[in-house]
Amino acid sequence: MTIRPRALAGAAIAALASVLVLSACGSSSEPAASTSAGGDAGALTVYSGREEEYMEPVFDAFEKKTGTTLDVRYGDSADLALLVGEEGDKTPADVFISQSPISQSYLDQKQLLSQLPQAVLDRVPANLRAADGDWVGIAGRQRVLIYNTDLVKPADLPKSVLDLTDPKYKGKVAVAPSNASFQDFVAALNQIEGKDATNAWLAGMAENGAKSYAKNSAIAEAVARGEVPMGLVNHYYVLEIKEDDPKAPVAAYRFPGTDAGSLFLVATASVPAASPDKAKADALVGFLVSDAGQQLMIAGEGEYPTATGVAAPKGAPSLSEGDYPAYDLTGVTDLKAIAEQIRESGLAQ
Q1: What pLDDT digit, counting tens, does each position of 70-86 carry?
Q2: Distance (Å, whole) CA 315 – CA 44
Q3: What global pTM score does this model have?
């Protein structure tokens, strides 16, 4: 597998600079790549918004199984989606993998994706794939509130994510405004509670002194250190902290019932319409939702499988019907508008 560096086009840089929310302490949004300067002319080009640490074992298995070489570029999902949008029908990407549905919806609404084979779509429930068949969920996670058990009593936990604007939580909550999962959460909140209520919540969090971090892992580590009592993250970050230190004073709190704070999100995969080798690109996406691919997909972070019949990893919290809010993952979402909505709230500096 070749990992190929490729510079962002000037127009894409300008677009990113104007719309992406960057925290004062840095961001993971800069596309990253390493090793050789040239790619294999016969390879499939993959843009991956999921980290190399978690995707390399999956890609290696696909290469070994099929003999197809993958030329992979890693980066932030939103950055890569904006880049594909800028490149349009000239994008070299054969497959786009996003850590979040919002980035895929951005490309879908621009009509830059091709429909996946029905056999691939049928592997995943309808609520975890695009209604038009242009992308499919490949791994899932739930939003939770991580909290420091030495600093927070269970009785003091909020009944709803909306309650975090209460003065009793002033300066006690961490968020990652530039993170794709947080942006997905905001998009979902717009849909579930309405845009006015979402704007009020964002502004309330900013006024309540919510602490901004670059990414979920930084929040989890800060909570474990006691730097901040609690924070909004994906469920597996709590598992990771506990795996590294079983005695770490952290726990995951899942907001009751179908509260918006318990949102279920999926990482996604699609095939850009410009791909010159759609058959092989479809085969890679198909592998990601196969039994073997799913086991590899969820092994790295303790995520949930999306394919029907594949068991969740040991240690993952239970996730049954009614344990997360109804949210149309395939709804049309303006990636730039969500980033701007967060920025205007004052939550991210």
Answers
A1: 999 999 998 999 999 99
A2: 35
A3: 0.78
